[in-house]
Design a protein that fits this description.
The protein is an all-alpha fold. The chain has 7 helices and no strands. The chain has one domain.
């Protein structure tokens, strides 16, 4: 069953990666006409890193032998939320051609709301891996999880540009620290 689910999740997460890369490419290509927004581009890097980390982390599910429709829907929903987050960061074709900063600010509540939803979905997903005997919750998760939620909530609740210039690098720092210190590379070995 995992192989079947992995294909669907890979397609949805692959679309999220493609959407972000297309958004970055478009921003670079129109930089002479529309000013680049480094905060939006920083979040684009963050979303890429997050999607790839989740994609990598989904591999633990290969050890689950009995699947329910609820698990299937839950993991698919997680992937869909990540795609929608990428889409909120870079609206699709036909969207207004505002400066990138205006686009980011206009979609800020959707982006951070979806980021918060993704982190809240990650909690039961991580707990389910432990409950199913697939992977113990890394001790670092107890620090990274609340930090991610605090950053997403702050981004959702404030429109102050200065705050947003701090949130993007803080989020990436938490993600990289968590990945390095939780030995995420052991997924393949496990």
């Amino acid at each position: 069953m995992f192989d079947y689910l992995a294909v669907l999740i890979s397609v949805v997460l692959g679309l999220a990666v493609t959407h972000v890369l297309t958004g970055i490419s478009a921003a670079i290509n129109r930089r002479h006409h529309v000013p680049l927004d480094w905060v939006q581009l920083f979040w684009a890097v963050n979303v890429l890193a997050y999607v790839l980390a989740v994609w990598w982390g989904m591999y633990w599910w290969k050890h689950l032998t009995v699947w329910t429709v609820q698990e299937f829907v839950f993991l698919t929903t997680y992937a869909i939320v990540l795609f929608l987050m990428a889409s909120a960061l870079f609206p699709g074709h036909g969207a207004r051609s505002d400066p990138d900063q205006a686009t980011f600010e206009r979609n800020r509540t959707w982006f951070f709301g979806l980021l918060l939803a993704a982190h809240l979905i990650d909690i039961p997903e991580t707990a389910a891996k432990q409950a199913d005997g697939l992977r113990a919750v890394p001790p670092q998760y107890w620090f990274a999880g609340p930090a991610f939620i605090a950053i997403a909530l702050t981004g959702l609740l404030t429109s102050r540009r200065r705050v947003h210039t701090l949130l993007a690098p803080a989020w990436l720092t938490v993600l990289v620290s968590y990945e390095v210190f939780s030995a995420l590379d052991q997924i393949v070995a496990g």
